[in-house]
User: Fold this.
Amino acid sequence: MPKIDKNAAGPSPSSQARREVAFILNSPEAKEVYLCGDFNGWSPRGLPMIRHDEAHCWEKRLVLAPGRYEYKFIVNGIWIHNPDAPVNVPNDHGSLNSVMEVQS
Assistant:
C-alpha cells in the first residue's frame, strides 16, 4: 500500500479545477463575431464565435481557471460590450467591458 505524505503541500491555486463557460451574444444581424478579453490578451481575431442560426445567437465556449475576466465582442469589426452581461465596467477607452466570474 502506498504511503501518503501528510506534510506535502496541497494543490496550488494555478492547479484549481478549470471550468467550461459559455459566452453568448444575441445578434441576428451580425456577419462575424469574435470574442476577446484579458484571457487571450485582447487579441481581436483569436477567438471566432460560432453562429447558431436557429437561435439567432453566437457562442464561444472556453475552459478557464476560477477568477474574474473582462471581455468584449467584436461584431462586424466594431467592439461592443455584452448588453446581457450582469456586470459591465468602465475601461480606459471610455467604453464598457463585460465581466465573467468563473467560480471555483
Observations:
- The chain has one domain: 18-102.
